Structure formats: C-alpha cells, structure tokens
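Fill in residues.
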C-alpha cells in the first residue's frame, strides 16, 4: 500500500513532510524495513521471542514484588 501525501493549499514543505512522516510511522513501514533488513530463521525467531517473553515475565514479577513490599 503506497503512502501518498498531497499538498494542501498554503501548506509549507515542512508541514507536508511532517504529515508524510506521521503516515509512514502509522503504517509501520520503517519498522518493517528494519525488521526485514536481515534474514532470521524460524528457529532464531522462536529463540528471540522466548527470550523476550522471559524478560517480560521477570519484569512483571519484579513489579509485583515491589508493589507487595510497599504494602507492608
């Protein structure tokens, strides 16, 4: 899906560029390009996802422990 931005009457180049950047960010184009820059095998993706899940879980546990300590 191409991202196009048409200049509005009286709109400056800076404003036009700002709208374009917002649309690109919202569409997730740059993040997709960065993600697809190198090939990552399925097994590597699984390993990365597992690591992220473990880190996320540890963060949640740490947060819960801190909240419990504050209650005491």
């Amino acid at each position: 899906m191409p991202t196009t931005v048409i200049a509005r009457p009286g709109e400056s180049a800076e404003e036009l560029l700002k709208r374009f950047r917002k649309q690109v960010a919202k569409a997730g184009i740059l993040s997709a390009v960065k993600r697809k820059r190198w090939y990552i095998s399925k097994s590597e993706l699984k390993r990365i996802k597992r690591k992220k899940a473990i880190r996320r879980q540890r963060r949640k546990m740490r947060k819960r422990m801190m909240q419990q300590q504050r209650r005491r």
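Helices lie at 13-27, 29-35, 42-71.
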